Amino acid sequence: MGQTRGRSALVPPQPPSYFGHVRTGDSAIIDRRGLDDLITALGRRGFRTLGPIVRDGAIVHGEVGASSDLPVGWHDEQGPGSYRLRSGGEENLFDWAVGPASWKSEFFPPRETIWRATVGERGERGVSIDEPASEPAPVAIVGARPCELAALDILDRVLADGEVPDPGYTRRRQGSFVVVVECGSPSASCFCTSMGTGPSATEGFDLALTELTDPGDHRFLVRVGSEAGAEVLDATSWRTPALHDFDQQDAVVTDSSIRMGRSLDTDGLAALLARNLDHPRWEQVADRCLSCGNCTLVCPTCFCSDVDDVSDLSGTVERQRGWASCFDLAHSYIHGGPVRPTTSSCYRQWLTHKLSTWWDQFDTSGCVGCGRCVTWCPVGIDITEEAAAI
Fold first, then answer.
1. What pLDDT, on the 0 to 100 scale, is given for residue 67?
2. Which of 211, 206, 189, 277 is closest to 35 using CA atoms?
3. Residue 5: pLDDT above 50?
4. Which H or E run includes 129?
């Protein structure tokens, strides 16, 4: 799915289907009160409802109980190595691109306990080994962007659809509910149009929203992507959309595509990178790169991890898995030393895996064009610029 998304206008709009109810493929209109109803309905169904919130000068993830918890009136300004928020005073909820955190962390946590071993009490012999028994509430996401939806689809291929699925990731994803919001405000770092992952959403969601604003009429066009989505939408106060609602939705998506901040020419890119592993550009970018790994931490598709055994004085040992980075010298360590001992070799590994060899492994690109690696690189290294230079 990562490279085949198109404009939402390609999906024929459908009005509610029968007897005042909606079903998969239908469309409806809700207002702020309807969005509040939607969030309430998710909570009543046992979901831990998460969405974008403003905290510590950035748009991050947090629990939401009403639409007022969302970034009302906030906008982001992004560029290479630059991120700022400003409040414009409007009532728009989704007038921003993406923040530093991706939804990957809700399904593939930065650190989790795999199993725990406990030594027997005094006088007892043996060691008991247990897996964590807690079953967290299923997650409902309100406000994911189409590029993030595409990233979750890529992670599904990597962590859920392989020969040995990751049990924790698979369990969390199967129980999740996703409300995607089509992007009307791309940042200067975004290039999802080039990657075919936005600014519209065509599949993989339970509900898809497009925020529409006219004087005195702040509303959302909702498209239903699943039976679960239809059930939740039916618990809200909605109305039948008019033709101008679909026209305005198409205008939002078209305008976002035109205003996309960056572009990446992907035609033949995978083979081109594979032919240029000794290109001098790798050394040039290494002169700027700090090997901090920020690009891998903010990337919504990077999945490398490491395993540590952690003990305490009580005799308990935990095996924990945490995110890892290919910029870490120990990441490529084998007997005799690391395979990639230089900054240039680490950056080359990251970029060529993301844009080239990922196709060999998973039949898709590893990049969705969200632009996070551009924004959150301390020295402003731009993946689209580096690929173009090669």
1. 96
2. 211
3. no
4. strand 127-130
Beta bridge partners of 255: none
Whether 17 shows a pLDDT value over 60: the answer reads no
| Most distant pair of Cα atoms in the chain: their distance | 77
What pLDDT, on the 0 to 100 scale, is given for residue 11? 45
CA distances from 20 to 17, 28, 227 (A): 7, 11, 15
Q: Which amino acid is at 59?
A: I
Hey, what are 314's tokens?
């009580």
Give the residue-averaged pLDDT of 366-385.
97
Q: Which long-range contacts (CB under 8 A, 24 or more apart) does 331-338 make?
A: 331/304, 331/306
The closest of 264, 285, 291 to 355, measured between CA atoms, is 264
Query: Using an 8 Å Cβ cutoff, are 338 and 255 in contact?
Result: no
Res. 125 pLDDT band, cuts 50 70 90: low
- DSSP strand pairing (217-224 vs 238-239): unpaired
CB 9 within 8 A of CB 253: yes
Measure the CA–CA gap between 253 and 201, rounded to whole angstroms. 10
What are the E-state strand segments in 1-99? 27-31, 48-55, 58-63, 74-79, 82-87
Sequence-ordered list of residues with C-beta below 8 angstroms from that of 368, at least 6 positions apart, any chain: 2, 147, 148, 150, 151, 154, 192, 195, 197, 198, 300, 301
Q: What is the pTM of this model?
A: 0.89
Quick one: which H or E segment has residue 104? helix 104-107
| Three-class secondary structure of residue 389 per DSSP | helix
> What pairing do the DSSP bridges indicate for beta strands 238-239 and 27-31?
antiparallel
pLDDT tens, residue by residue, 158-213: 999 988 999 999 999 998 999 999 999 999 999 999 999 999 998 999 999 999 99
d(CA 248, CA 252): 6
